[in-house]
Structure formats: structure tokens, C-alpha cells
Amino acid sequence: MSAIANPKGELQEWLQAGSTEPPHYRMVSATGPDHDREFECIVLHEGEELARGQGKSKKTAETNAALAALELLKQKQADSGGKPPRRKRKPKAAPKTASHEKPV
Fold it and tell me: Domain 7-79's class?
């Protein structure tokens, strides 16, 4: 995989090509002594875990999770014949009527 300058931003763009919901990051563990911590984060999208990442800081762990998610998504795209992700459409809400109007 080539070097990506901003993995979290690229992941957000990739996911928002098919959804309006951005990715969310959650720290799941911090181990080791205070002077030598190891963090583990997960990246979630629409409630589903996409990938995990580890690092010596929360930021590094999130970046590594984003890189792992991008790698996974790109592999899924290649396996599906190169089709990009599809945008999920929200159902249209019924038009609002003024309180004095009766619905038709």
C-alpha cells in the first residue's frame, strides 16, 4: 500500500461516498506502564467495526485503524470488480403541512 498523508481524512471521504455518516473512533484498551503505553482503537461506521489499530499514542492508534480499514475496503472493492461504494439513500419524509391545513 502506498503512503497516505491523511488516512483518517481519506477514510472519511471513502465512506461518505456511500453514506452520510462519518467514521467514529473508540479506544478499546491502553496497556503498559505510564511511560510506555500501547493504545488500541477501533474504527466504526454505521455501528459496525471496520478495523483495529495500535500505537504509542491514541492518534497513532486511530491512524493505524484508519489505514487498516482503507486496506480492507480497497480489497473488498477489488474483489467486487472495482465497483465503488454505493451511497445509501435515506427515505424521504412526508411533506409537512401547516397546522390549519388538513392532509390530502
Answer: alpha beta
Report the percent of the chain where pLDDT is more than 90.
67
Please work out, in degrees rounded to the nearest 5, the angle formed at the alpha carbon of residue 97 by the alpha carbons of 94 and 98. Answer: 160
Looking at 17-57, list the stretches that DSSP marks H as alpha helix, in order from N- to C-terminal side: none
CA distances from 13 to 23, 28, 33, 91 (A): 10, 24, 36, 22
Asked whether 7 and 62 are in contact (CB, 8 A), the reply is: no
Separation between Cα atoms, residue 55 and residue 96, nearest integer Å: 50
* pLDDT confidence band for 80 (50 / 70 / 90): confident
Nearest by Cα to 88 from 43, 48, 53, 54: 48
Domain boundaries, the chain: 7-79
